[in-house]
Design brief:
heterotrimer; A alpha/beta; B alpha+beta; C mainly alpha; A: alpha/beta; about 30% helix; about 20% strand; globular; disordered N terminus; C: mainly alpha; disordered C terminus
């Protein structure tokens, strides 16, 4: 074992120094632990490649955590045998041996990872390798691969297994925050349906063999005229882009096509026209006092939602300056639900609205008159919006989501005329997060059809599923001599390629990223590859037989390209270690100044042509079928849970309630309630929606705030070859997109809707959207804020019990919460919350410990919405406790309402008596696969389980514990440190992930703690306070920001 | 000790009562009377003193009450004080229902037990039946057989007058 | 004086004037002869129900509570509804034997035995559900206070109404059982002495504890009966009060109501008498005991139904009034939802059965019409089941936070277990009327003897017979009657 350890010592840079290491848990210090090493060598004789096998052959085990939870959530593995019939899982009787084997796998993976490729230059850990104690988590900085936003992450690695993803709070862009997708990516790592190794012609093959085939084919291609094409999704990695460049040098006929199914192609085209550079500007929402969104869901999915949400919240603090956010959009989006003013708008009208705004602003700016279209919405609204924008010149921001060059050009122009360039719109440090080029992709398909392409390498793309003409693409692909895919599974596209060369999951790989120009971040492996996969970059290097592997290439790249651009650290090793530890590096603006760009000459861009284009279009739409009865405009959108569908086999995301519709496990056709009534459609009626691109069958859902003439359908669903969980969930709407003016358009007019007569029971987690006039979410206005008197606390019916040393409490700022739902997944990952599946959700048995209640107020046509995270309120006078017959739930000396799984017999009396309905019952054993066959039911998926948290068995009640396991870790650390715990040292999973910092947690006994401060905020109130439950979780009222007419 | 007895059976309850009263007036020793159902007036006729069973009920009931209260107090206050819904450890009001139930349980069971002991009734006991049918439709009176012949004759006469159907001699330990 | 005072109608609780021997023979007949076809038919059906219960319960325990239609908002539905329903049924028996005993209602003598049996069986059915409804029934013993183990102190929560239930119901069951058995002992003796078969002799011999009708025993026996009756009376009232506290002590609108204890007790007696009526009508037809269970009995029970039904109706009204008058928005919404929400049909069914149906009993012609009585008694059972369903499910499915609102739809297992519980109940009851004296022989003999003395009064006083034999003051209430000496 010793050599392993040394290996480990010389491997990864841990952030242990920055994050206090957790104390050893009991079962790590148990005697068996001593024999871990030998056991390991026996466990994995063949070294790394054995690991997957080992993983697969592990006996079923939800036990790593099932091993006992005392009330405080601490593990007592030595009491295992009691727990087998007590708290433990009665059906799957798992002994400690299997459990240790499993742990063994984890540790093995880590140590073996350590001795892989010893020739790699070793990096001494700032924290000694002895610190790699089983049971003590290490934190590694890396970069998220969940989407192209490339957020900076901190990965919690426990015994060699990454088990939790957290944001990297060193990053100025993303802070400690992540999105739901980012949180869920750790589960994709343990997806049991990932390929175990490469395939040739659909058959498992050795890498050498694959390389043989590929290189020879490429060599053959080099001679011929046929092109060699790399089709990849956006590549944010500068080093990888450099390798691609080398390919260009290696093969004269090489082309790189960047293909994003949901692209910002038009934005880049428009920038090219307006500013002379095909870039995506970097938007600064925090500097904007007036934000106008034209169907841009920048808090949910657009470009870089985490960063934007953080900035948005920073700019809208109730104590800060007044801000105004106006959103024009067809269907209700996360962003729209947070807007001060939301105007339902048909997609075809968005262009006209942009034009109308431009016309008004141009007039003010003294530009020659612009002949805009007739105002599609109430002109007074447009007047006031334009007025607000103009009054905040340089501190306003207009963004549009539509993928239409003319629209984007008009929006650019508006921002330019408002003098926002350089203030809220940064061109010097553009975003590199979505570089897809729709035109190039279509061109490629045509070339392939014409047989002009000899070899295609598909990286991170799945056109068979998400290209607007999937079948067409596949036909074309069949004419290519060599097709290679690097997908991690035999997806729709990979099913038909010659070679499948599975890429690492990003948590297994080295890498770097540059989401924003000059803003770099590094990726380092947090676990040895589970399966026989190979980094895509390595494959590329191998196939042009470049020397060395990607790791050394990466270092060389950074030595030569990045190192020189900074001066802080002299030696490369120091620089490398430092950056790897921090994970992020801000090089500042690129040296090539784009001052010229900032002052781009308007005449240079023919935005007037764009205006007339938009005008004609909206008039055409107005004239023709678009506005006539029975015809609708179909708006396809990127959903928070599924995004572009690449994570469609991730059960966490499949079961994540959509922030707006609250629907899980599938997409729906969202109709305005009025429209649904007119068509006589009820929720769940399956309809056929026909548009130019084709037809889909999808259940109806009447969505308040939906534009009456539009239908919204989420993209990313309807995968057919992604895996057990994701196959056939929802319908694929990508085929309904069209190519218009060289860019891919996600809306279509002239859509018709016809009922099929079938019904589908929607799997929704919230069926009632009105607050019924009850004091649940309280609102206030900035005007009120100054002079609001605090209501006096209700009297206590009994004598106060002696206060504990600490009193944990939480505050949730309803004004900051955007409803993005990242906390839901974070909690699920941290607390081993099972996925229960569509059937159980249909039966209203969702298991999420934290849910986000969303209420509407006002008219159904255009309601105001509020999001309210709701979890156990940890009442001082908890109704659930009094009624429990067996004392399975009591209040701890520190004010936590704790659930004792071992003792619970499942009378459900507590849940009945809980006014907040936050208790969750294990109706079945959700870990065996008999009733919900997801990650907990297979040995690979189980590796994601958090050993600090009990896996609950059938028949017991569970609920939010305020992450009691984190509290204990922090306590023990403080004890070891010898100094008291600092405020903010403990962050609950939901708090940690929150992009808008809406959640605060801490000790109420410490008057200086953030949470105690907030408890005395004049906005603070408790839900259902008048019941006398005295919750320790308090809410801060939603503030309605400066309203316009 | 076994003793010789006279057993007289009656078809009807009236004769029985008359017989009992007169027999005692005649200073005859009436051991016991056997009837298919409880006949009233017999207590006075036979001069049976009131039973003390109700006192036992009371004592047992009080015992149950004290036991219940102390059990709950011990568990919640002394042995395992927990913060349950922020309520005080000693929530006496909440202890009342159980205290009541245990009172009733103790009282009831003890009374029945005492009754069975006192009347020596137990499963498998072989009953001594003075005459066939005393559990059906026959009423029987059991008198100690007078040793003096003259009293013996008077007893027979008396029983006959009261309408005894049969008069038999027998032995019994009573 | 030899004549009754003027205007005292002389009641006859037993038709004709059978001799004591006849009484024994009549009541023992079902046990000695073969029962009628009807009995076999009913028994076959009941047995099917029992099998269904066993099957469903096995399936439930094997898979988990998930096989029921429950969900995050509705944590209790059929399970606790059935529990309360059966406990309610279980009230009439002890009430008849205990309270009517104390009030010296002699009409109870013909029916108390079967009513008590019904109580025992109903409580057995009820006891089933707290067990079945647990997520982990194999840990059910957690709910009893037992000696702390290696986990250190480990007590139950004496503040939880569920624990009160455990004590209340086990006490109630024990006392009822003892009371019932004690009442059977003299009859066992009677049967022992007329039994021909060896086994019968042996069995009844053991059960009769060597009873020989000694008056010294009789006199203590009656005191004990009185004491038990005195204990059982408050017990009956306490049991359903405590059951009602499962709801009353919670804070849920629709549950959190102070009128629950009396309201539930009235409801329990109402449903209990409804079930007694059903059973008696069935048995007197199937076992031709019309002579002992007369129209007068049915008539008096109809009157009790009318009374308790009216009390229940009053409680319903009170609930709505206090919801409106109290002005608590949650409470108010709950009752609007009860009358207009998705489960309104259940509410109106409940009103029809529990408020309107018993009002028919104002009319003597209906009280004396067996068919009508039977029909109404069935309605009462249905109505009372729905009352509990409404209270439990409608309160749960739309509580405080609208985000947590949901619906409950029963599954086949839900229904199967409900039906199965009836199977268990009727199997036990049918076995009882087949193999045990379903009418208290010795008590009836007392009544018969009295009636004969009414017919040919003699100089001798015969005290009232039956366990009700306390020397009664002149002019005692109700059906009480006796001669002045």
């Amino acid at each position: 074992m010793s050599d392993h350890c040394n290996g480990a010592k010389d491997k990864l840079v841990t952030l242990g120094a920055r994050r206090p290491p957790a104390p050893p848990q009991d079962y790590w210090t148990s005697p068996d632990e001593l024999h871990h090493g030998p056991a390991l060598r026996g466990e994995f004789p063949g070294g790394l490649p054995e690991i997957p096998a080992a993983a697969i052959h592990l006996p079923a085990s939800g036990e790593p955590a099932t091993a006992g939870a005392a009330p405080d959530g601490h593990n007592h593995d030595h009491e295992d045998h009691d727990h087998d019939h007590d708290g433990g899982d009665p059906d799957a009787g798992i002994g400690r041996r299997d459990f240790l084997t499993l742990m063994g796998f984890g540790v093995g993976a880590a140590s073996l990872a350590a001795c892989r490729a010893p020739e790699q230059r070793a990096i001494p850990l700032p924290v000694a390798a002895e610190d790699m104690i089983a049971g003590v988590p290490n934190y590694y900085a890396t970069t998220c691969g969940g989407c192209a936003s490339a957020c900076s992450l901190l990965v919690k690695q426990r015994d060699g297994r990454p088990i939790k993803i957290e944001g990297n709070d060193v990053s100025e862009l993303f802070g400690g925050a992540t999105c739901a997708t980012g949180q869920a990516t750790v589960l994709s790592l343990y997806d049991n349906e990932r390929l175990r190794g490469p395939l040739w012609q659909g058959q498992p093959a050795a890498w050498a063999e694959i390389d043989e085939h590929v290189t020879s084919a490429l060599a053959a291609a080099a001679g011929k005229p046929g092109k060699i094409v790399l089709v990849s999704s956006t590549i944010t990695s500068p080093s990888l882009r450099d390798i691609v460049a080398r390919w260009g040098r290696a093969f004269p006929s090489f082309h790189h096509v960047v293909y994003d199914p949901i692209s910002a192609s038009a934005l880049r085209l428009a920038s090219a026209q307006a500013f002379g550079r095909a870039i995506i500007p970097h938007y600064a929402f925090d500097r904007a006092r007036v934000i106008v969104g034209l169907d841009a869901d920048f808090l949910g999915t657009w470009l870089s939602p985490v960063e934007f949400a953080r900035a948005y919240a920073r700019g809208r603090r109730p104590d800060g300056p007044t801000t105004l956010h106006v959103q024009f959009e067809p269907g209700m989006s996360v962003t729209g639900s947070n807007a001060d003013r939301r105007i339902p708008t048909a997609p075809s009208e968005l262009g006209a609205i942009a034009a109308a705004l431009l016309a008004r602003i141009a007039r003010r700016a003294g530009e020659p008159e612009v002949a805009a279209a007739a105002d599609p919405v109430d002109p007074t609204i447009l007047d006031s919006v334009a007025g607000e924008l103009w009054n905040h010149r340089g501190a306003s921001l207009v963004v549009a989501g539509g993928n239409d060059a003319a629209l984007q050009l008009v929006v650019h122009t508006i921002n330019r005329l408002l003098g926002n360039i350089g203030h809220t719109v940064d061109l010097d440090r553009p975003s590199l997060q979505r570089q897809g080029d729709d035109g190039a992709m279509t061109a490629l398909v045509e070339e392939m059809q014409r047989g002009e392409v000899h070899a295609v390498i598909l990286h991170g793309v799945n056109p068979a599923y998400d290209y607007l003409d999937g079948p067409g693409f596949m036909k074309a692909l069949a004419r290519v001599a060599l097709s290679v895919s690097t997908t991690d599974r035999r997806d729709e596209t990979a099913a038909a390629v010659h070679a499948v060369c599975p890429d690492h999951h990003f948590l297994e790989a080295w890498g770097d990223a540059e989401p924003i120009a000059g803003y770099l971040s590094l990726s380092q492996p947090t676990i040895a590859p589970l399966f026989e996969t190979r980094a895509f970059a390595d494959s590329l290097l191998r196939w042009i037989d470049a020397p060395g592997d990607y790791y050394s290439f990466l270092r060389d790249y950074w030595r030569t390209q990045v190192m020189p651009r900074q001066s802080a650290l002299a030696t490369f090793d120091a620089f490398w270690d430092h950056t790897l530890e921090r994970g992020v590096l801000d090089l500042g603006p690129p040296t090539t100044p784009s001052g010229a760009v900032a002052s781009a000459d308007p005449a240079g861009s023919d935005w007037r042509a764009a205006v007339s284009e938009l005008r004609d279009e909206s008039q055409r739409a107005a004239g023709t079928e678009g506005r006539t009865d029975g015809h609708f405009e179909l708006a396809l959108y990127e959903s928070v849970a599924m995004r572009d569908g690449r994570n469609a086999n991730n059960p966490w995301l499949l079961e994540l309630p959509d922030p707006i519709t609250k629907i899980t496990w599938g997409n729906v056709a969202e109709l305005a309630p009025s429209t649904a009534d007119k068509l006589g459609l009820r929720d769940g009626d399956i309809v056929t929606i026909t548009a130019a691109g084709g037809a889909i069958e999808v259940p109806v859902f009447s969505q308040p705030g939906q534009h009456p003439r539009t239908i919204s359908v989420a993209l990313g669903y309807g995968r057919t070859q992604v895996g057990k969980a994701g196959n056939g969930v929802g319908v694929n709407a990508f085929p309904l997109t069209r190519l218009v003016r060289g860019t891919r358009r996600a809306w279509a007019d002239g859509a018709t809707i016809t009922a099929t007569g079938q019904r589908d029971k929607l799997a929704t987690t919230q069926s009632h959207f009105s607050m019924e006039g009850r004091p649940i979410v309280l609102e206030t206005t900035r005007e009120e804020l100054g002079h609001a008197e605090r209501p006096e606390a209700l009297p206590n019916l009994w004598n106060e019990r002696p206060a504990g040393e600490r009193s944990w409490g939480m505050t949730i700022d309803l004004d900051a919460c955007t409803g993005c739902s990242a906390c839901v997944i974070a909690c699920q990952a941290e607390n081993n919350v099972p996925v229960v599946g569509k059937d159980q959700i249909q039966r209203q048995r969702s298991m999420h410990w934290i849910r986000i209640d969303r209420y509407y107020s006002g008219s159904e046509d255009n309601p105001q919405s509020v999001h309210q995270p709701m979890m156990c309120q940890h009442c001082g006078h908890a109704p659930c406790e009094t009624v429990c017959p067996v004392l399975a739930t009591t209040t701890s000396s520190e004010g936590l309402n704790q659930q004792v799984y071992n003792r619970c017999i499942g009378t459900r009396y507590c849940a009945n008596n809980c006014p907040y309905k936050v208790r969750r019952f294990n109706w079945y054993n959700y870990t065996t696969g008999n009733h919900s066959d997801y990650h907990m039911a297979n040995p690979v998926g189980r590796l994601v389980l958090n050993p600090d948290v009990t896996v609950r068995s059938r028949g017991v009640m569970e609920k939010c514990s305020l992450c009691v396991q984190r509290i204990h870790v922090a306590k023990n650390t403080a004890v070891k440190r010898g100094e008291p715990m600092q405020d903010g040292e403990i962050k609950t999973a939901c708090q940690q992930v929150c992009p808008t910092d809406a959640i605060r947690f801490g000790d109420l006994n410490d008057p200086k703690s953030q949470v105690a401060q907030r408890m005395h905020d004049q906005r603070t109130y408790r839900v259902l306070e008048d019941l006398g439950t005295r919750p320790n979780v308090a809410y801060l009222k939603k503030v309605r920001h400066g309203q316009t007419t | 000790m076994r003793s010789n007895v006279l057993v007289a059976t009656f078809p009807h309850v009236d004769g029985l009562l008359k017989a009992v009263r007169q027999a005692r007036r005649e200073m005859l020793r009436v051991y016991d009377v056997f009837t298919p159902f409880p006949v009233h007036g017999l207590d006075e006729a036979m001069g049976i003193r009131h039973t003390r069973l109700p006192k036992i009920t009371l004592i047992a009931g009080l015992t149950g009450l004290v036991f219940a209260l102390s059990l709950q107090f011990y568990a919640n206050v002394l042995d395992w004080p927990l913060n349950v819904g922020g309520k005080p450890d000693n929530t006496t009001l909440a202890f009342i229902p159980i205290s009541f139930e245990l009172t009733v349980l103790f009282a009831g069971l003890t009374t029945v037990a005492a009754f069975l002991l006192r009347t020596k009734l137990f499963p498998g006991k072989q009953p001594w039946l003075p005459a066939p049918g005393v559990t059906d439709d026959v009423f029987a009176i059991v008198i100690r057989k007078p040793t003096a012949d003259e009293t013996y004759q008077r007893a027979l006469a008396l029983l006959k007058d009261c309408g005894a159907a049969h008069i038999t001699e027998s032995e019994a330990d009573l | 004086m030899d004549k009754l005072p003027e205007g005292v109608i002389e009641p006859r609780w037993i038709a004709g004037s059978p001799t004591l021997g006849q009484v024994t023979a009549d009541i023992a007949r079902p046990m000695e002869g073969k029962p009628g076809k009807l009995w076999y038919v009913l028994f076959a059906i009941a047995l099917l129900g029992l099998l269904d219960l066993l099957g469903m319960a096995t399936y439930l325990i094997a898979n988990g509570i998930g096989v029921w239609g429950l969900n995050n908002s509705v944590g209790w539905a059929f399970d606790i509804t059935n529990f309360v329903f059966w406990i309610g049924i279980g009230h009439a028996g002890t009430l008849i034997s205990a309270i009517l005993l104390l009030f010296r209602q002699k009409w109870r003598t013909s029916i108390n035995r079967s009513a008590e049996a019904m109580t025992i069986f109903a409580v057995m059915c009820a006891g089933l559900f707290p067990l079945l409804h647990m997520g982990r029934p194999w840990d059910a013993f957690f709910i009893f206070p037992y000696v702390p183990n290696q986990h250190g102190p480990l007590w139950v929560n004496f503040r939880s109404p569920l624990v009160w239930d455990v004590f209340a119901i086990s006490t109630y069951f024990t006392i009822s059982l003892v009371f019932w058995f004690l009442g059977l002992v003299p009859d066992f003796a009677t049967l022992r002495d007329r039994a021909i078969g060896k086994i019968k002799k042996l069995v009844f011999g053991v059960l009769s504890l060597g009873w020989n009708g000694s008056h010294r025993t009789w006199s203590r026996y009656e005191i004990v009966s009185l004491v038990l009756a005195g204990l059982a009376t408050p017990l009956v009232l306490s049991v359903h009060s405590i059951v009602s506290m499962d709801f009353a002590t919670s804070l849920l609108p629709g549950w959190h109501a102070t009128i629950f204890p009396p309201y539930f007790v009235a409801g329990a007696i109402y449903s209990g008498f409804g079930m007694v009526l059903t059973l008696l009508i069935l048995t007197r037809q199937s076992m031709n005991l019309q002579r002992y269970i007369t129209m007068r009995h049915l008539d008096s029970m109809a009157k009790v139904l009318l009374l308790t039904g009216s009390i229940v109706s009053y409680a319903y009204a009170t609930e709505f009034f206090s919801a409106w008058y109290g002005g608590n928005i949650y409470e108010r919404y709950h009752f609007i939802n009860r009358a207009t929400g998705p489960y309104a049909f259940g509410f109106y069914l409940m009103v029809l059965c529990n408020v309107l149906a018993p009002q028919l009993f104002w009319f003597k012609r209906i009280r004396n019409h067996v068919g009508a009585l039977f029909a109404v008694s069935i309605l009462v059972n249905i109505g009372m089941w729905f009352e509990r369903f409404i209270i439990i499910v409608v309160s749960l499915h739309r509580a405080f936070l609208p985000s947590g609102w949901g619906m409950f739809y029963p599954t086949l297992v839900d229904i199967g277990i409900l039906v199965g519980s009836f199977g268990l109940f009727f199997t036990l009851f049918l076995l009882f009327i087949r193999y045990m004296p379903m009418i208290a022989i010795w008590e009836v003999k007392g009544v018969v003897t009295d009636q004969q003395h009414m017919a040919h009064p003699s100089a001798e006083t015969i005290g009232t017979a039956g366990a009700a034999g306390i020397p009664a003051p002149a002019g005692a209430a109700g059906m009480e009657h006796h001669h002045a000496e």
